Amino acid sequence: MKLGKLGVWAAMDALTAAEGAAFARKVEGWGYSALWLPESRGRNIMAHSAWLLANTTSLIIAPGIANIYARDPMAMANGQRGLNEQSGGRFLLGVGVSHRPAVEGLRGHSYGRPVATMRAYLEAMKAAPYAAPEPPEPPLTVVAALGPRMMALSAEHADGAHPYNVTPEHTADARRILGPGKLLCPEVWVLLETDAAKARALGRQALTHYIALENYANNWRRLGFGDADLAGGGSDRLIDENVAWGDESAIRKRLQQHWDAGADHVCIQSISPDGSRKPDEKVLALLAPSAR
Q: Which of 53, 62, 64, 248 fits a 20 to 30 Å CA distance from 13?
């Protein structure tokens, strides 16, 4: 699998199936190497990945992330193998423990100790039998890792990490823990807006949900943000360091900071000026590899 430096992260459940297929073809045409999509309250991410793979020819499709509480390790591993065999190796699996409210409140499972649960799950995936044709190459798995223990686990038991809601400082710390040879694929929010007040208001709208989740809040605290930064939808500093807003030059500078810090691949998530969850195609086209 040849994963380029830049991909797109998009909330695909905001689009119909036909709109999603058309958007994936646009992402492919713009020259991005991968399209990342989440799993929450909408479509089954494995089924939707199959749809997007069938509607593209070269684009890598990457769950960011597939919830390990949504399917057992054998189902995850064999879905990963099948999608890679069917697509010629274009499926990059991202897995994660999700969040306690989603696991216990929505799914009715017990939320286990994150690192121990992920370790056991990855080991079970590797041990899962598979009685169908193998993909052209061994499939790759990255882990939704934020803290140092989960990051170390990603280095030991997976092919890398996919951090979300992170700063260039976190990317540098992650690379030190992962070491060389492991994929580091952080997500970065981007917003084409030069007015600081407007940009921060839209940034707060995008981040408010995440601030309330303990996994992200704890990670921001590890990075030096305090309770005041996490109050009221997020301080200016929290928004500015987690959202790449401004003109094209400012956004590209932030992306470069992640690459300089050790990222192999950065997946950008656009914040729409109208506040919707639909991708902002204007900024994605502007930042596209084909536009350089």
A: 248
The burial class, CB within 10 Å (0-12 / 13-18 / 19+), for 110 is exposed
Decide if 52 contacts 35 (C-beta within 8 A). Answer: yes
Q: How many CB atoms lie within 10 A of CB 202?
A: 22
Residue 3 reports pLDDT greater than 80: yes
Q: Residues 146-151: contacts with CB within 8 Å, 24+ apart? A: 146/170, 146/215, 146/216, 146/218, 146/219, 147/218, 147/219, 147/222, 148/173, 148/177, 149/115, 150/114, 150/115, 150/118, 151/177, 151/178
d(CA 59, CA 258): 22
pLDDT at 57 over 80: yes
Sheet containing strand 187-192, edge to edge, reads 60-63, 34-37, 6-9, 266-270, 187-192, 243-246
**What DSSP string describes 227-252?**
HHHHSTT--HHHHHHHEEEESHHHHH
> Of 63, 48, 141, nearest to 98 (Cα)?
63
Half-sphere exposure of 10 (CA within 13 A, CB side): 27
- What value, to the nearest 5°, has the Cα angle with vertex 275 and ends 271 and 277? 65
Residue type, 71: R
Tell me how far CA of residue 245 lies from CA of 28, 41, 169, 239, 265, in angstroms.
24, 28, 17, 9, 19
Are the CB atoms for 171 and 160 separated by under 8 Å?
Answer: no
Cα 117 to Cα 72: distance, rounded to the nearest angstrom? 12
Pull the structure tokens for residue 156.
């030991």
Residue 94 in 3-state DSSP?
Answer: strand
Predicted confidence (pLDDT) per residue in 220-264, tens digit = 999 999 999 999 999 999 999 999 999 999 999 999 999 999 999
CA neighbor of 4 nearest in space, from 25, 23, 27, 21 = 27
Longest dimension (CA), the chain: 56
**pLDDT value, residue 104:** 86
DSSP state of 75: H
